Amino acid sequence: MKILITILIVLGVAFGAYKIWDYWETVQSDREKTKTSPPQIVGEQLQGLPRQLEPALKDAEKGGPRTLRDWLDKAKRAGIIKDPRLAWVELEYVVMITKDDPLEAKRIFSQVKKRTPTDSPVYPQIKLLEKNYE
Length: 134
Fold this sequence. Notes:
Blueprint: H1 2-35, H2 54-63, H3 65-78, H4 85-97, H5 102-115, H6 123-133
């Protein structure tokens, strides 16, 4: 009888260990799924800017915040850049000026956030930057 009870206890412990191991594997796979970041967005892939203006935008970005701001103002007045690309470029500008003019960066970020819908491809970037600019 003692042998039967011992065997049942050993089987119970083995079964419990198996269930704990199975649960641990499930938790680990869930963690791996959450660790994977959303797909990286590349600004050049977003719609809203004609391809022939890409070099002008790149030059403006290389020129620094002032040059990019001037380019953005001209492009918005002419209506050649539209969301979601406009929002992306403005977020790049916000990051550029944060150190020198944080109030202006927060103001522009707020404008971009207000007009960007949650299903926009730029929205994950807004959520990423949101902690810094609110």
